[in-house]
Amino acid sequence: MAPVVRGTVVSVNTGRTRLVTVGARRVASAIGKAPAAGAVEVRALGLDGDEQADPSVHGGLSKAVYAFASEHYPVWRTLRAQAGVALWDEPLPPGAFGENLTLVGLTEADAFVGDRLCFEGGVELAVSEPRFPCAKFDAAMGFRQASKMMAQSGHCGFYLQVVVPGRLAAGEAFALRPGAREVSIGELFRVRVRPGR
Predict the structure, then answer these.
(1) How many CB atoms lie within 10 A of CB 119?
(2) Taking the alpha carbons of 186, 164, 8, 51 in that order, is the dihedral positive or negative?
(3) Which helix (H) or strand (E) holds 147?
(4) Could you give the CA distance from residue 146 to residue 131 in angstroms, rounded to a whole number?
(5) What sign does the CA torsion over 178, 183, 184, 185 have?
(6) How many Cβ atoms are within 10 Å of 66's Cβ, its own excluded?
(7) Mean pLDDT in runs of 10 for the chain (197 residues)?
(8) Domains present along the chain, CATH in parentheses
């Protein structure tokens, strides 16, 4: 039997599509998320006030909400400082990875496809798949090797499908209700980013 996993929403984050510079190009992106003030409505296709610039890779029913573990933030602060794009003690604000939910208590190793996050306010979200980095992630982190670092570390976060809509706010607790537990987000991510694929 799987151990009981409990956690908390550190921040609920939303963002609008805007033009960003990726290499030498200007492209539309909604990776820049910021913490919402108060509770946010969660619907089948995502959070009120949030957008996805490229629905071919983000959004839709199975990727309506993107979650990222706050436990990974210190590693990324260090990586950005080593890359010379930030100071050693410069904080990364919630939403820096483009995530809708910054969570504490659940990482890729403990999140399995089909698991459900049951929030105290009644919202229920099902773990669907890992997030895979792209050049927009490099731009958001401020250095070109960020996608490679995400691939190597496995700190990718995961997408969630909305099972029971409602409202979510920072500070809300959740419990994980295990699904079939056949493949974890970390395992699926490693298989998909394996060299030679």
Answers:
(1) 22
(2) positive
(3) helix 146-153
(4) 14
(5) negative
(6) 24
(7) 83 95 89 96 97 86 97 96 94 96 97 98 97 91 93 96 98 97 96 72
(8) 9-193 (2.40.33.20)
